[in-house]
Design brief:
Residues 213-265 are annotated as: Disordered. It comes from Streptomyces avermitilis (strain ATCC 31267 / DSM 46492 / JCM 5070 / NBRC 14893 / NCIMB 12804 / NRRL 8165 / MA-4680). By secondary structure, this protein is mainly alpha-helical. Among the domains are: 20-75, Arc Repressor Mutant, subunit A, CATH 1.10.10.60; 79-171 and 188-215, Tetracycline Repressor, domain 2. It is built from eleven helices and no strands. The protein has helices at residues 20-34, 41-48, 52-55, 62-75, 87-104, 106-112, 124-136, 143-162, 165-170, 191-217, 252-258. The radius of gyration is 26 Å and the shape is globular.
Length: 265
C-alpha cells in the first residue's frame, strides 16, 4: 500500500497565489486581534497557509508590511462630500469620520499615528481636508501649513484617546480648587463630547484667523482701522510704551502684531 506523501515542513499549498493586497488584508486581521507587536511573519504565513519565506517576495520586512497595511487602510477612508454645506460642518464631518476609522482599527492606527509618513498627499483624508480649507477661504499658500496643524491636533487627541491618557487627564483634579468649590465633576463629560470640544476649538481658531486675514492682516500688513492699542496684542509682546502717533508703517512692533491671531474672547 502506497503511503500518501507528506508535505515537507515549512511549506504550504495554496489554492490562489499570494498578493501584496492579500498579505496586507490578512496582516490587518491579525493586528486587529492581537496588536502590532504580536504580528510576526511566521504567524502571518500560518494564517495565509503559505511558506514564510514566500512572503518576502512581496514585502521585504515587517516595517514595510506595516506601511503597506497603513496605506491600505488610509486609502479606504471615506467621508460624505457636502460641497454645499458650510465649511465648519464639513470639517466636523471629516474629522469625525477619521476618528471612526481610528476606532475601527485602534491597534494599527495607534502605531500609524507615530509614523511621520502616515499621511500622504494622495490620501483621501488629506485631499478632503485641503479642499475644505480652500472652500473656507484659506489662501492657497497657507493651506499645507494649516492642514498640517489640524492633522497634528486631531491625531494628537486620538492618540491620547486610544491609549487612555485623555480619559485620565480629563479626570485630574486641580491642586487647589477655587474657594467654595469641590473641584470639577466630569460626570457625562465623555470622550465623544471632548472630541466635539476639540473640533469647536479648531473651527473657532480657523474662523478667527480668516476674520483677521479678511480685515487686512495678511502678509505683514496691520489690520485696517485696528490702531496700535487694539487690545489684540498679548501683554507680554507689547512694547514698554506705545507711541501710536509717532509710529511709522515699518514699525517692527506693528508688523509683529499683524502676524498674530486674535485672542480668544
Amino acid at each position: 500500500m502506497e503511503r500518501a506523501k507528506r508535505t515537507p515542513r515549512g511549506t504550504r499549498k495554496r489554492d490562489v497565489p499570494l498578493t501584496e493586497a492579500g498579505i496586507c488584508t490578512s496582516a490587518l486581521r491579525l493586528i486587529d486581534a492581537d496588536g502590532v507587536e504580536a504580528l510576526t511573519m511566521r504567524k502571518l504565513a500560518a494564517a495565509l497557509d503559505a511558506n514564510p519565506m514566500s512572503l518576502y517576495h512581496h514585502v521585504p520586512n515587517k516595517e514595510a508590511l506595516l506601511g503597506g497595511v497603513a496605506r491600505m487602510v488610509g486609502a479606504r477612508f471615506r467621508t460624505v462630500t457636502l460641497e454645499d454645506a458650510p465649511w465648519q460642518e464639513r470639517v466636523r464631518l471629516l474629522a469625525t469620520d477619521f476618528r471612526t476609522l481610528a476606532h475601527r482599527h485602534p491597534n494599527l492606527m495607534a502605531y500609524s499615528f507615530s509614523q511621520p509618513d502616515f499621511i500622504q498627499p494622495e490620501d483621501p483624508f488629506w485631499v478632503a481636508l485641503t479642499a475644505v480649507l480652500a472652500a473656507a477661504g484659506v489662501p492657497q499658500s497657507e493651506i499645507p501649513q494649516l492642514a498640517a496643524l489640524v492633522c497634528a491636533v486631531v491625531i494628537g487627541v486620538m492618540i491620547a484617546e486610544l491609549n487612555g491618557a485623555l480619559h485620565r487627564w480629563s479626570n485630574l483634579q486641580p491642586a487647589t480648587p477655587a474657594s467654595g468649590e469641590d473641584g470639577p465633576t466630569n460626570e457625562g463629560f465623555g470622550e465623544d463630547r471632548m472630541f466635539r470640544l476639540v473640533l469647536d476649538t479648531i473651527i473657532s481658531g480657523l474662523e478667527s484667523r480668516l476674520t483677521a486675514d479678511h480685515a487686512g492682516g495678511r502678509e505683514g500688513q496691520p489690520p485696517q482701522n485696528s490702531g496700535c492699542a487694539s487690545g489684540r496684542i498679548p501683554r507680554q509682546l507689547r512694547p514698554p510704551a506705545a507711541h501710536c502717533e509717532g509710529e511709522s508703517p515699518g514699525n517692527p512692533v506693528s508688523g509683529m502684531a499683524a502676524g498674530l491671531d486674535p485672542e480668544v474672547q
